Amino acid sequence: MPTPHIDASHPDQIAKTVLMPGDPLRAKYIAENFLENVEQFNETRGMLGFTGTYKDKQVSVMGSGMGIPSAGIYYSELFDFYDVDCIIRIGSIGAMQEDINLKDIVVATAAHTDSNIFNGYFGNTRFAPTPDFDLIFDAKQKSDELGLTTHFGTVKSSDEFYGNEEEIYFDRLRHFGVLGAEMETAALYLLAQKFKKRSLGIYTVSDNIVTQEADPAKERETGYTQMMELALEIAPQ
């Protein structure tokens, strides 16, 4: 039963929990460095997907591409066609608070968005999708156990990477405590709620929009191992 975007011919080729970075090369890195007994289930459009085991539990990892339109296709197909129960997004995020440092971890308790896709669902209602509470709780416990610097709060899922947001709105988001900006999580939380599934967004801070600090591209692909380990540790069976 391959879909237009995923090669897997049977749901058993994909684990019930899928970790999803935007970058397919990050998915490949995780499969090669954290998983055992790895089998590749997707290469359509270069969006690599792998299934293996981590500490005796089956886990899949697959790229989603950049932005809500791309990621939303893969989230929908995994939830609806392959009966995936849980997707954990693992990505990079631009911090919007000065006290959040490079390589800190952010866990999104809700996702704001400027995406017009939401208008097709709710019209003028500004629906705020949220993740699975038990996954947030597990992430907090495991983060403390591993001694990680982790921030819990809301994020903004932007439709544009090179946006032209007026400074007043950026400052207002900061004032209201938004931790950072990324591009996919609002779609993940929306679609998980639509299909009655579980989801969570975990990110490593790759840059700080306020201080203008930033990590190089290669570091974003392979260097964010604490985020990867945290996601793998809390991944449900």
Key features?
237 residues, alpha/beta, Rossmann fold, five-stranded mixed barrel
Task: Provide structural commentary.
- Belongs to the PNP/UDP phosphorylase family.
- The record marks 220 as: Important for catalytic activity.
- Phosphate binds at residues 22, 26, 45, 89-92.
- Catalyzes the reversible phosphorolytic breakdown of the N-glycosidic bond in the beta-(deoxy)ribonucleoside molecules, with the formation of the corresponding free purine bases and pentose-1-phosphate.
- It holds the Pfam family PNP_UDP_1.
- By secondary structure, the chain is α/β, with parallel strands linked by helices.
- It has a single domain (11-234), classed as Rossmann fold.
- The protein is built from eight helices and nine strands.
- It has helices at 24-34, 68-80, 119-122, 133-146, 167-175, 185-194, 217-222, 225-234, and strands spanning 17-20, 36-42, 49-54, 57-62, 86-95, 105-113, 150-157, 180-182, 198-208.
- The protein has a five-stranded mixed barrel, surrounded by four helices.
- A hairpin with a 2-residue loop joins strand 3 and strand 4 (57-62).
- The radius of gyration is 17 Å and the shape is globular.
